[in-house]
Structures are given as C-alpha cells and as structure tokens.
TrEMBL record:
Also exhibits azoreductase activity. Catalyzes the reductive cleavage of the azo bond in aromatic azo compounds to the corresponding amines. The gene is azoR. Binds 1 FMN per subunit. Belongs to the azoreductase type 1 family. It catalyses: 2 a quinone + NADH + H(+) = 2 a 1,4-benzosemiquinone + NAD(+); N,N-dimethyl-1,4-phenylenediamine + anthranilate + 2 NAD(+) = 2-(4-dimethylaminophenyl)diazenylbenzoate + 2 NADH + 2 H(+). This is FMN dependent NADH:quinone oxidoreductase. Keywords: Flavoprotein, FMN, NAD, Oxidoreductase. Signal peptide: none annotated. PANTHER family: FMN-DEPENDENT NADH-AZOREDUCTASE 1 (PTHR43741), FMN-DEPENDENT NADH:QUINONE OXIDOREDUCTASE (PTHR43741:SF2). Homodimer.
Length: 197
C-alpha cells in the first residue's frame, strides 16, 4: 500500500491557497491510488517547537545518557521522521512569508534533519538517507518572484540534503496582484497537478 504525507504550513491552515492546491493533488493521487493511505500534518495547527540548545542537545546526546526530558524531545522528533520514512510521496504546501518559508516549516525541518538518521556525513560530503521518495511542493506567493527564487532553492536543497531528489515544485504567484492574476496563477497550478499526479 502506497503512503502519502501531506504537510501544510499556511497560517490560514486548510483555507490557505498552498493547502488547497495540496488538497487537490492528494485528491487526484487517491483516485490513482484508491488503497493509498494519507497522513496529514498541519504545522500551523500543531506547530513544531522552535529549535533551541536544549532540544539540539537532546538529539546529540547518546540515547543511554539522555535525561527523561531529552528522551521526550528525541521521541517527538523520531515520530516526525517516521512519518517521512513511511511515506512514498510527500506533498508540501508552502506560502511565501517575508521572502522565505513559514517559520513553522523551518522548525519542522530542524527536527527532521538528524545526523545518522535522515542524513550522514561522508568523506565525499553529506548523504541523504531518505531515498526513493517523491516530493510535490506547492509554493504560493502574493508577488511575482520567479521559479529561481531563493525560497524554492532552499526547499529543493533541504529535501535533497535528506535524500529526496525527485522534487516537483509548482508555483502560484501574483496572488495579491489582482483577482485576474490570482485566478490565472491558480488555474495554471491546477493544470500542472494533472500532469504530475
């Protein structure tokens, strides 16, 4: 049975445009995978805590030496990672906030980038350990910045860092420019869903 993990990061939760585009993809995916299993995580509704020194030390402390508090922190991260490990397809809904990804998504990334678990260092450089997965990313923006913007590059680089090389990014831009621009961008994104689903 194929599994899909949907990650939403819009402040508007299910009402956000990036979330709705992700929902449209998931609906199409389920048509093609009627026995498929979908796991959804809304990072606005249930934000991942900001990474601080105590949480980082919980990750780097050997398991037998962890305090009860550190074990709880590590177990939380382990659950997030397990969702990624089990998924065949990861769908991310990402609006642009202040030229980057929402802070909740950045915190999520901080909790799933774990040396020895999702990546490892080698003499040739870091190697991602989450191979053979596909990511479909919906990036929505009020303005028009282009597909080569640093936000898109960051998302692609992070996913590649943990081993996810098959990444499809669909942009919907100009959503705040005007109603016509918004509708054209959303219609174009939905047309692309049919091609990549």
């Amino acid at each position: 049975m194929r599994k899909l993990l949907q990650l939403n990061s819009s402040l508007f939760q299910g009402g956000g445009q990036s979330s709705q585009l992700g929902d449209a993809y998931v609906e199409r995916w389920l048509q093609d995978n009627p026995q498929g299993q979908v796991n959804r995580r809304d990072l606005a509704a249930e934000p991942v805590p900001h990474l601080n020194l105590a949480r980082f030390q919980a990750f780097t402390t050997p398991e037998p030496e962890r305090t009860p508090e550190q074990r709880e922190v590590a177990a939380y991260s382990d659950r997030l990672i397990a969702e990624l490990q089990e998924a065949d397809v990861i769908v991310l809904g990402i609006p642009m906030y202040n030229f980057s990804v929402p802070s909740t998504l950045s915190s999520y990334f901080d909790h799933v980038a774990r040396a020895g678990i999702t990546f490892r260092y080698t003499p040739e450089g870091p190697e991602g350990l989450l191979a053979n997965k596909k990511a479909v990313v919906f990036i929505t923006r009020g303005g028009i910045y282009g597909e080569d913007h640093a936000q898109s590059a960051y998302v692609r680089q992070f996913l590649g860092f943990i081993g996810i090389q098959d990444v499809e990014i669909i942009h919907a831009e100009g959503l705040a420019v005007g109603e016509e621009s918004k509708q054209q961008a959303l219609d174009s994104a939905r047309e692309q869903i049919a091609k990549v689903a």
